[in-house]
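Title: [Solved] Sulfurtransferase 3D structure

Original question kept below for reference.
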Amino acid sequence: MSNLVSVSELSELLEAGAPVRVLDVRWRLDKPDGRAEYLDGHLPGAVYVDLGGELADHAVPDRGRHPLPTTADLERSARRWGLHDGDIVVAYDHARGLAAARAWWLLRRAGVDIRVLDGGLPAWVAAGGALETGEVTAPRGDVHLTDSIVGVIDIDEAAAFPRVGVLLDVRAPERYRGDVEPLDPIGGHIPGAVNLPTPVHLADDGTLRRPDELRATFAEAGVTEGTPVAVYCGSGITAAHTALALEEAGIEALVFPGSWSEWSTAPGRPVARGDAPSGAGPAE
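Solution (posted by the thread starter after getting help):
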């Protein structure tokens, strides 16, 4: 079953009265708080999800800019969103699914039936979908989340991963090369990592490319069915989107949540620069 839902499929679920909870995950690097835009217009019944406050735990030191929340904290948030056991959950955003995929990855690991709205808010609006304004406060849910470490690797496992599989760095090429680094103290990439920027998985309209197209793109990066693959990005957000694309291509992926924001601040970790996966140098 696909981890995506189309605008027409979501419309049918809502019209049929299915137990669907819609989550609005507005977040961008340049505008992490999307609440104001949410209040101006969102899918009917959608509850706002604060990515920085509810899909990350900033009390965790030395784990990058968006450390994973505990299962207990995520469960409290999910109950605030109105989730119940057995609900179908649909997450969307207004930025090509990058933030919604973070919610998908976290909740899927915790046992929730969650999908991402393919194309997000722009696709809904383009299809003539109705919008609501203002805050939606859902009746408190009672969902029970599963405590799971499946799908996660830590910094030491990320360092060793290129020896056993393909470690994908999904940031922009200039950040991978180390030409620029607008957010973290050091530019470059984890030695051995292969660059495959997130936008290559997206069609012009912001929807995810077809599974056969995704498989072809991953194969060019050395990832085929059966290849061990792990993914990282700047701080664990867009890595979840590539994990979603891999899942749609029929390939299971691991994610390094701390990503470059953890690696670049960890003392003594080597740094590779340039287009080649290798070429390590001492951390600065």
